[in-house]
Write a structure and sequence with these properties.
Strand order of the largest sheet: 26-25-30-29-28-27
Radius of gyration: 26 Å
CATH topology of the largest domain: Neuraminidase
Helix content: 10-25%
Shape: globular
Number of domains: 3
Number of helices: 8
Number of strands: 36
Strand content: over 45%
CATH superfamily of the largest domain: TolB, C-terminal domain
CATH class of the largest domain: Mainly Beta
Length: about 525
């Protein structure tokens, strides 16, 4: 029950920090997309609007930066080769700057004072160096011969600050192209390097200690100052023109201004079906546009597998699943594993049956999608619920809840539990559960065992939470199970979760929670 109480109990810290804990940063992702948003200032309040997928590519798209206020450059993989693409914001089209058959390019940046870009080139030989690409002359040349540069930022036309790969870490190196010198000024740093607006210093993330710290460095004097400890191990950040730091993780963009703020707060929260797992972030120099990198929403990936199934497109269907996908009956009764087995099973099914699946209800929570499906197979209808878990752009597990028998009282029992919960009536609430009720983190982590433990937990919770309220955003009923998408208010905080209730007789016998 520990996780459930964490979900329910009010958090003294800001909701953004609670939410960020649920997500780990991802340094490398497959099937990522570059998205663009407009930044609007309404009555001194920053708003992010008009989310648009600008890469729209099946492969890897990542590491965006602004060449100018109308052009975004980023790494984009086509047919196994990663080149530098550019997106024209006004015209809405993509073209490619490089086509390097002997290697791939990453982390492109405009070179100050030149119509050229710099990018990390990973050659097919394994050599990794920083190159300059001249857009007019269509030529490339090595900028830093002896350094294995991972990430970089330009300080001016001849000084580069880089995160350089050394053994199993990266060190901060200042390189002067005029006198061809390289100086290591800090060991063990992250990938996020940015000039701080209206200053002569550059920010970086120090990883020297267990708690990562955002610091600044003056590349000429070498002076280093601490700005702000990173509350979690955030890999990527950026600066707005007013000196506000922004970070992206999960489905949230959070902000912190060292001059005015005491802690991080939410700038923007994306909906469950928009994106998933922000890993990169960049802002245009004029402050009007923001680019982020994210996986596609799990809902989009799950819908692709529904559409390809209905088209009997076996290859397209199987491509939506990971190599080691696990298929089971709810909650964890494994039927089979592996993409090859899945493909073989569905090949036989599609060859012998005419079928179509219609999604009648859908709940999205984090990287999980819960679909209520109506399947017509050879003219016969059946209902089921499928729970999909998505990671790195692929479905890694699929769990089925079949519709075996109706339970006419199931929804009524769960509704009575909800009404008692909102009334904070502990007797009526506990009375809706069996003596042996169990609560799990989905799928099988036991967190509460027995009515006595349930009563003890919720008695205190009800008495300490005067504003407690749970609103049902979506509900699926299948046989003796009720699945609720819940929006909870508790001590001024709001958060969402999914609860799956299993009814035995006239009582709730098992609960499974997803968030």
């Amino acid at each position: 029950m520990k996780r459930y109480t964490q979900i329910l109990y009010s958090m003294k810290k800001l909701y953004v920090l609670l939410f960020l804990i649920a997500f780990n940063s991802v340094s490398a992702q497959s099937n990522t997309e570059v998205y663009l948003l407009d930044i609007e200032n309404n009555n001194e309040k920053i708003e992010l609007v008009n989310l648009k997928n600008i890469s729209n590519n099946k492969g890897y798209d990542n590491q965006p930066s602004f060449y100018d206020d109308n052009t975004i450059i980023f790494s984009s993989t086509r047919e196994g080769q990663t080149d530098i693409a550019q997106y024209n914001i006004e015209e809405g089209n993509i073209s490619y700057i490089t086509n390097t058959t002997s290697g791939s390019e990453y982390s492109p940046l405009k070179i100050p004072g030149k119509e050229a870009i710099s990018a990390i080139r990973l050659d097919t030989t394994g050599l990794q160096r920083l190159y300059q690409y001249d857009s007019k002359k269509q030529k490339s040349s090595v900028l830093l011969e002896d350094l294995k540069v991972g990430y970089h930022v330009w300080y001016n036309e001849h000084i580069i600050i880089s995160s350089v790969l050394v053994d199993n870490r990266m060190d901060l190196v200042v390189s002067n192209l005029k006198d061809k010198t390289n100086h290591t000024l800090h060991k063990n740093v992250g990938r996020s390097l940015h000039k701080i607006p209206n200053t002569d210093v550059v920010s970086f993330i120090s990883k020297e200690k267990d708690t990562w710290v955002i610091k600044s460095i003056h590349p000429i004097s070498g002076a280093i100052q601490e700005i702000k400890p990173v509350p979690l191990k955030i890999e990527d950040m950026f600066w707005l023109n007013d000196g506000t730091m922004i970070v992206g993780l999960g489905k949230i963009i959070a902000k912190f201004n060292p001059k005015n703020d005491k802690d991080w707060s939410v700038l923007h929260r994306f909906t469950q079906d928009e994106i998933n797992e922000i890993s990169r972030i960049a802002v245009s120099k004029d402050g009007n546009h923001l680019a982020i990198v994210s996986e596609e929403s799990p809902a989009i990936i799950v819908q692709k597998q529904v559409d390809t199934f209905n088209k009997a497109d076996l290859d397209g269907f199987a491509s939506c699943y990971s190599k080691n996908v696990v298929v089971c009956n709810f909650p964890s009764d494994t039927l089979y594993t592996g993409n090859e087995t899945l493909k073989s099973n569905y090949k036989r099914f599609l060859a012998n049956n005419q079928s179509k699946v219609t999604v009648t209800k859908r709940i999205v929570m984090g990287n999980k999608v819960i679909d209520q499906e109506n399947a017509v197979v050879n003219g016969k209808q059946k209902q089921q619920v499928a729970i999909y878990e998505v990671k790195n752009g692929k479905i890694i597990s699929m769990s089925f809840i079949p519709h075996n028998e109706d339970h006419p009282e199931a929804e009524k029992i769960v509704q009575e539990q909800l009404e008692a919960y909102n009334a904070r009536n502990i007797d009526d609430f506990v009375n809706t559960f069996s003596d042996t009720v169990k609560a799990y983190d989905y799928p099988t982590k036991l967190n509460m065992d027995g009515k006595e433990q349930l009563q003890k937990i919720f008695s205190g919770f009800f008495s300490q939470t005067p504003d407690l309220h749970c609103e049902i955003k979506n509900r699926i009923v299948i046989g003796n199970m009720v699945i609720d998408e819940e929006f909870v208010t508790a001590n001024g905080d709001n958060f969402s979760a999914v609860a799956l209730y299993k009814i035995n007789g006239d009582k709730i016998d098992k609960m499974y929670f997803i968030r």
